[in-house]
Amino acid sequence: MTPTSSSALETPPSDSTRERGSELPVLGFDSATVMNRIDALAEKHEGHDDAFRSAMAQLLKAELVRARDVAQAELLNERHGRRTAERLCALHDAIIRILYTTATRHLYRSPTPSDSERMAIVATGGYGRGLMAPESDIDLLFVLPYKQTAWGEQVAEVILYCLWDMGLKVGHATRTVNECIRQALADMTIRTAVLESRYLIGDRHLYDELMARFDKDVVQGTASEFVAAKLAEREERLTRAGQSRYLVEPNVKDGKGGLRDLHTLFWIAKYVYRVHDASELVKRGIFDAAEYRTFRRCEDFLWSVRCNIHFQTNRAEERLSFDIQREIAQRLGYTEHPGMQDVERFMKHYFMVARQVGGLTAILCAKLEEQEAKPAPVLNRVMARLRPHKRRGKIAGTEDFIVDNARINLAAPNVFKHDPVNLIRIFRLAQKNNLDFHPDAMRAVTRSLNLITPQVRDNPDANALFMEILTSPDAETVLRRMNETGVLGQFIRTFGKIVSMMQFNMYHHYTVDEHLIRCVGILQEIEAGTHEEFTLANDLFKKIRPEHRSALYMAVFLHDIAKGRPEDHSIAGAKVARRLCPRFGFNAAETELIAWLIQEHLTMSTVAQSRDLSDRKTIENFAAVVQSVEQMKLLTILTTADIRGVGPGVWNGWKAQLLRTLYYETEPALTGGFSEVNRARRVDVAHDEFRNALRDWPEAELDAYIGRQYPAYWLKVDLPRKINHARFIKSADASGKKLAIEVGFEEGRAVTELTLLAPDHPWLLSIVAGACAANGANIVDAQIYTTTDGLALDTIAISREYDRNEDEARRASRIGEMIEQVLEGKVRLPEVMARRTQARAKTKVFVVEPEVVINNQWSDVYTVIEVTGLDRPGLLYQLTTAISKLSLNIGSAHVATFGERVRDVFYVTDLMGAQITAPTRQAAIKRALVHLLANPDAARGTA
């Protein structure tokens, strides 16, 4: 690209020629008044420069604090983020101009300055854009004509030290014009900083010379190089921040769809198209008027969020974390609606804005490719990876769409108006022909959403095309593009209600729509059998009836469709499916199957993680729900995709084994086979697998070890863990220690695993939980087994605290030492816990209503107590201690944490080994545990 002129890079005269006292007061800061007060201070402290500087810094700091308070008040009143950022920037401009004037008037005045005693003070970086968040850095460039002089060094020092004394963060550089040009040529970051530079005060001719040289020597002829560098920089930044724009704790500045994406867009536009303001992109034909309004709306919203975060936290915080989301939502005026909290409505708006930013970026990139300012690789590499395409040509079977540089585009502007079904067909054709989507076509799609009428929704061809998309390869990619253009929510109106909806909890990593689309992608991976982590689901998919394949895809796509409603989303989702599925060609039986899968989509996960799978009653109850092996197969596959789609580290071998155990324990109950024989056969198979894995062990040693584990152990633990346990126990036996602890690390889950071998003890679980809590370790999962020779084999997963495994191992050792000291009577846990000061947990921003369910129908032997509440450090210790004090024996415990929500299930009896049947006794237990959940301070006081 050839630049048109250097003037396009300069700050407009209205900004650049302002002199001290000529601008209007900003945020109540009147430069003329403040300067008069500083002149008076100079007179008062004449001959005492240090005292004068100190007094001046104190005066300016007080004025800055007052002006920031005004800015915050105006932001809360007007809710106009960009205006606040402009005002804060103008405030700092005024302060810097005052400091320069003071330095050259009162401290280092040069009545007859030489040619080298010149300086231009220039704002760069974000500050150079004329927009500034409350806690952002000030980036300054001191431009000199030649080398540094004593005068220039003294003036810069006065300005910088005063800014630092005011508590401001300042980044600065002092360079000559030649140095600026040389470094801009060599370093793309410096080039971007100069591109965004803005004249503040000093010698204007120096600044004009810098910009003219920058335009001629740096910018001219280098558009492609700059664009490629900025897009590569963006990819690297997004990889660090998290590629998805639907992460529920987004980075407002650096995340996908955040402010930095808008900055990158404008940097590129400014460099390539020689524009100063985003409005000029309309004149250049990059954006239309509606898209420019979207740009401004997105920018203002993101600045509102960012400024409120800075004001709320009093630091340069850019991450919209759970602990501040509600406060920011309330500062921005969001209110609660039925089924949605205020914070969820705010975050839904945030993700819609992030999606719009992505659309604007795609539009600009398309224009750059057309003008060859950007290298030609497609934006979406997933779709174009299978085979190369010609640059232009027809697509077989259609006259309405063409191939344009390996991307699908419109053959004529009116293809959607001519046939609105084309709004669905374009996505199917792209999928079928492995084509990426041309941004111009996506713009046309977005502008044509009003053509998706009830007639289109009921059109058999449109619905058949959607089912082909849903059940064909690359469905995840295509569904995401349909969602981002708005087609998916317009075509399936119920889906539109959950677009960009977040769930205010620490368990789900993505918005509801993104979770559903990811689950479809995971289902395709299960069908392809490409991942060993889905062994059971991979195998079951091959065995389901072919006619149920489409029903399974639809159930996965719709399983959370009713989130955000007042009623239970599983029940409401089943109702939605019954209304929606006939439209897509499902008959009555298939529709009912889909509705059942949606209604029960949480059941298998709950039973597997929260029930005793060795208890026959658990299996019988689950079998009564699933009713048939075929339905259990489908539910197992859906459950696997759902758990894996929650986010990184949620699915693991532990949960996979629990699902596998539940499936194989229930299968004979459904087929009518003699379950105990079947179970014994599966235990024998597990023994054989174990023997084959440890062939280096003598036969007698293998027999002895196998005899130490109960049958349930062999069914519920996966083979790698069994092998680790065997070697661990063998090593412990050889050492002769009463207590042995092994430490393991699961990097994907960010947890540390403690495997404990100790003599079984009624209070052992409580002791372990207390030792963990006393050392600041929060238990998130637990597997608890007992050997036939009276030992407890417990694996406890705790939240990771340190990055280095060595540090985590030392923490685990401290926990082990405390357990041993408690068991030996050297330490009393209640005293340790009473002394320990609990830090404010991140989960305190969440509200989970305490619930205790006591049930005698889930087991024939035990009373089952299910406890649900807000997780906190030491909760498991408090619960187990309270249960023991209630004269109950814990037969088994099933500990699970879902983000901030804990669900612990205890199988208990009274001291005589009987179930708790008396209603008064049950009520007393429930009352005590609910009180403990609701009153953490009271619980610690009585621990």
Write the layout of secondary structure elements.
Elements lengths: L12 H4 L14 H14 L4 H30 L2 H27 L12 E4 L1 H4 L9 E7 L5 H16 L4 E7 H10 L1 H8 L2 E5 L1 H16 L3 H19 L17 H15 L6 H4 L5 H25 L8 H10 L10 H29 L21 E3 L6 E4 L2 E4 L4 H4 L3 H11 L3 E2 L1 H9 L6 H4 L2 H11 L4 H11 L1 H5 L1 H4 L15 H17 L6 H7 L7 H10 L10 H12 L7 H12 L3 H8 L5 H11 L2 H16 L8 H19 L3 H19 L5 H10 L2 H6 L2 H17 L4 E7 L4 E9 L4 H11 L4 E8 L4 E9 L5 H19 L5 H7 L15 E5 L7 E8 L4 H11 L2 E11 L2 E10 L8 H16 L1 H6 L2
Parallel strand pairs: 2-3, 7-8
Antiparallel strand pairs: 1-2, 1-4, 5-6, 6-7, 9-10, 10-12, 11-12, 11-15, 13-14, 14-16, 15-16
Helix pairs in contact: 2-3, 2-4, 3-4, 3-6, 4-6, 4-13, 7-8, 7-9, 10-11, 11-15, 13-14, 13-15, 14-15, 17-20, 17-21, 21-24, 24-26, 24-31, 25-31, 26-28, 27-28, 29-32, 30-32, 31-32, 37-38, 37-40, 40-41
For the record, give the distance between the C-alpha atoms at the N and C termini, rounded to a whole number.
Answer: 73 Å
Compute the number of structural domains: 6
Mean pLDDT: 85
Task: Output the CATH topology of the largest domain.
Answer: Beta Polymerase, domain 2
Helix tally equals 42
Helix content: 55-70%
Apparent shape: globular
**What kind of sheet is the major sheet?**
8 strands, antiparallel
CATH architecture assignment of the largest domain: 2-Layer Sandwich
User: What is the SS-derived class?
Assistant: alpha+beta
Uncertain segments of ≥5 residues (pLDDT<50)? 1-22, 376-390, 837-843
Please count the beta strands (DSSP E, at least 2 residues each).
Answer: 16
- Binned strand content: 5-15%
> Numbering strands along the chain, what is their spatial order in the largest sheet?
9-10-12-11-15-16-14-13
Protein name: Bifunctional uridylyltransferase/uridylyl-removing enzyme
Cofactor: Mg(2+)
Domain HD: 512-635
Organism: Afipia carboxydohydrogena
